[in-house]
Amino acid sequence: MLKSALYSLTSLLLLNFTAQAQDPVFSQFFANRAYLNPAFTGIEDGLQLSATARNQWFAADKGYSFYTTTAEWQEPCWRSGFGLTLAHAQEGLAPLYSSSGSLMYSYFIPSEQGEWRAGLKYAFNQRRLDWSNLTFSDQLDPVFGDIYATAVAAGRESVYFHDFGFGVVRRWDSKTKSNGNSQFSYRSHIGMSVNHLVSLFGDGPDDSFLQTGAEVPARITLHGGTIIPLEFLRGVGRKITLSPNMRIESQGANPLNLGESLTLVSAGMYVIFLNQFTTGVLYHSRAPFAGAKHTNAFTLTAGFSSQPQKKKEDNFYLGLSVDVNTSGLGIRSNNIYELNLRYAFRGLKTFCDKGQGKGRKWSRGKTMECPHFAY
């Protein structure tokens, strides 16, 4: 019985190394904008540094951990944003390590009451596995346990591959009359990004340790959101803003076919108090229209952002979330936790400012201001 169970577990483990897998995703996707879509790179003035730590199922042995750090820089006279992201993941008892470094570039085109943004991403990826930490069924004796040598031929210890992605975002402001006279504006955005672009049109990179030709499947992300200030509350000394957001992820050999792909749908609402305190709830589901049994989790989020007195002052955002799992492994393994920190250096001079200081005039692109919490 034990030998059979371990053999099945080992087979599933090897299958996971060679079959198509799903990319890691963030619960606080609004706080990881460049990871969500490279078109968001450099969306804020100056230099932004951000870091995220995600821990899944820490009650299980080793569980799954995912970390990213990102640096972004905006150059308005070039209408461009530049970014660098370093990511690292660790999973399982072996363990399996996944690391990547990504370069991102975005370009924006101002339009009436908004802007269009397009972004590109290049990534270099590495996956590492220590085969000596794996135990196969032919190594086990029913009485004495692990005493035999395995006949399984170990695969590669490291796999490297290149990766490409792109994204587009449309942002715009809308004005609505309040109380019949005054007007207030709210900001919206909608975007799409594609990761593992080569796999969408042909044979993508092989990331399996056994080099079976199993390509990294393409991933398509659709996302959108709105920032709605409740103007009617300002007269009573309150300033509250609502921010509904949604995200649809699809990854597989044919990501446009949701029935044959790994899918995740996230939707929810954030409430921002006094432009500083944030709380929200997100709903995640594999198939939201097929019934509650497909619900993965509810994400509870709380955050705080500084409120500078001047436009060019530095600011930061700190957010914490917990995914309360409702099905699968998560219920028994202590849910999912995520911590996010982002700091913006707003007072740094851009290339435009330095050029003007030398007597040369540059054509500065007019960017839309970006609330530090959202988009």
Structure description:
Helices cover 9% and strands 49% of the residues. With 375 residues, it is mainly beta. The protein has one domain (2-357): Beta Barrel (Porin). The strands form two sheets. The chain has a 14-stranded antiparallel beta barrel with strand order 1-2-3-4-5-8-9-10-11-12-13-14-15-16. A hairpin with a 4-residue loop joins strand 2 (64-75) and strand 3. The longest helix is centred in the N-terminal third of the chain and has 17 residues, at 2-18. Mean pLDDT is 79; it is low at 1-20 and 357-362.
So, CATH architecture? Answer: Beta Barrel
CATH class: Mainly Beta
The topology string of helices and strands comes to HHEEEEEEEEEHEEEEEEEH
Q: Quote the CATH topology.
A: Porin
Question: Helical amount among residues, as a percent range?
Answer: under 10%
H/I helix tally: 4
Give the N-to-C terminal Cα separation: 54 Å
Count structural domains: 1
Number of strands: 16
Regions with little confidence, pLDDT below 50 for 5+ residues: 1-20, 357-362
Helix/strand/pairing category: mainly beta
Largest sheet: 14 strands, antiparallel, barrel
Strand content: over 45%
CATH superfamily: monomeric porin ompg
